[in-house]
Amino acid sequence: MRQDPLAYLATELDNLRRQGLYRSLRILEGKQEATSRFDGKQVVNLSSNNYLGLATHPRLIDAMVKATLEFGAGSGAVRTIAGTMTIHMELERRLAAFKRTEAVVVFQSGFTANAGTVSALLNKDDVIISDELNHASIIDGCRLSKAPIKVFPHKDMDAARKILKDLPAGQRKLLITDGVFSMDGDLGPLPALCDLADEFGCIMMVDDAHASGVFGKNGRGTVDHFNMHGRVDVQVGTLSKALGSLGGYVAGTKTFIEFLYHRARPFLFSTSHPPGVAAACIAAVDILENEPGIIDTLWENTRFFKKGLADLGFNTGISESPITPVIAGEGALAMKLSDRLFQEGVFASGIAFPTVARDKARVRTIVTAAHTRQELQYALDVFKKVGQELGLI
Questions:
Q1: DSSP 265-297
Q2: pLDDT tens digits for range 291-343
Q3: For the segment 203-255, what is each residue's pLDDT rounded down to a tens digit?
Q4: Is the terminal CB of the chain with fewer CB neighbours within 10 Å at N or C?
């Protein structure tokens, strides 16, 4: 009988169970809403990236249905062969105008937008200077490029400057940061990084996945928030979080975007968005441009919940965004916190090493515009009960 060459994976899973880090997928039974049904239980949902509640917005649903009826369920090809539809071009035109850049290209996900862009821009003779807490998709794109990677401690501008100062003046350099760091919820120091990019002649890149629809006027992101227009060469955004649908995009000059048409592998080798998805994304841009009050509601809810956690005495780290970690420390304790919260009616995902440092395991909470004050107060009451039970407060 043939031996299973993957048998070792069962041992790896057993190790996770012994460490208290094994997780089963929570199954959503219905819509992604502020209170949702997971695994047969109604819970206040603090684990969704649906910042503005647009995933269930009637205008997005209506746009998706209409475009599907008109154009079909799928595009049927990659963009460079027969899969570029008029609705894809309209989405990219609308996003470029929204971001105040010359052009935009849409990718199948935020992950492929980052990985495909970094790997297309650079080769082994170039160099990347990257914040140590940048997203996994940035890290994978850096590795695929084969360029050497110089990592600086999180937001340490002196360390980044030292790295740049020691590099050859003529070498092509990419300086890259998250706009909002997805685990701690803090902002990248974009103005200081842009100054370094100008001084040392770097390509400046920001991943604004968690800033899209959240920061800046009408949710234009951290470039707008910090007024860095014209100083960031590569802007990555997402359509899968605050915009409520699916995909990622890259914004920049027309020349840069046309280059990605020819060299970005996810663009070249993956089927393009279904037309219904593109239509829903256009509807989301319409809402951001015409109904900015929804972003104000997001921030009102964020301030209320953050203050509540702080008043209870939880360690919420350095968050500056609707992402607020509740840091437990040890991995198994963070997972127990997550499980007990769920049992009491609050869904906040547990996160441990290697996603975060071994001593910084946490549950990550994300407040949305769709939450009511009653839902958020209920969640705070549950955090108080469970936090006291586990000795966290």
A1: HHHHHSBPPPHHHHHHHHHHHHHHHH-THHHHH
A2: 999 999 999 999 999 999 999 999 999 999 999 999 999 999 999 999 999 99
A3: 999 999 999 999 999 999 999 999 999 999 999 999 999 999 999 999 999 99
A4: N
Contact 111, 139 (CB under 8 A): no
Cβ count near 307 (within 10 Å): 11
Any idea what DSSP says for residue 218? G
DSSP string, 89-144: HHHHHHHHHHHTSSEEEEESSHHHHHHHHHHHH--TTSEEEEETT--HHHHHHHHH
Q: Which is catalytic among the residues 241, 273, 360, 371? A: 241
| Residue 241 bears catalytic tag | yes
Which is nearest to 231 in space by CA: 125, 335, 101?
101
Q: Is 210 a catalytic residue?
A: yes
> Can you read off the two tokens belonging to residue 242?
């605050």
Cis peptide, bond prior to residue 354, ω within 30 of zero: yes
How does 350-385 read in b/e, with b if 16+ C-beta sit within 10 Å?
bbbeeebeeebbbbbbbbbbbbeeebbebbbebbbe
Walk me through the domains of the chain, giving residue ranges and CATH numbers. Answer: 19-48+292-389 (3.90.1150.10), 56-290 (3.40.640.10)
Residues 6 or more apart whose Cβ sits within 8 Å of residue 289: 98, 218
Say whether 273 is catalytic: no
With beta carbons less than 8 A apart as the criterion, state whether 222 and 206 touch. yes
Average pLDDT over the chain, rounded to an integer: 96
Catalytic residue from among 210, 225, 360, 371 = 210
pLDDT at 58: 98
Catalytic residue, candidates 119, 145, 182, 245: 182
Residues in the chain: 393
Question: What is this structure's pTM?
Answer: 0.94
How far from 69 is each of 63, 119, 245, 275, CA to CA, in Å?
A: 10, 37, 18, 10
